[in-house]
Amino acid sequence: MSGTLQLRLEEVHELARSACEANGCSGEQARAIADTITAAERDQCHSHGLFRVPFFVRAMRESGVAPRAEPRLEELAPAILRVDGGLGFAPLALETGCNALIERAREQGIAALCLNNVFHISALWPEVERLADAGLVGFAFTGAIDYVAPAGGDKPLYGTNPMAFAWPRNDQPPIVFDQASAASARGEIQVHLREGKPIPEGWAVGPDGQPTTDPETALAGAQLPFGGHKGASIALMVELLAGALIGDLFSYEAGEHDRAGVGAPRGGEFLLAIDPARCVADGNREAQIEHAERLFRRILEQDGTRLPGQRRFEARARAAAEGVTVPRSLHDQIQAFIAGTA
Ligand code: NDP
Question: If both were cysteines, with which of 56, 166, 223, 281 could 132 make a disulfide (CB 3.0 to 4.6 Å apart)?
Answer without folding.
Answer: 166
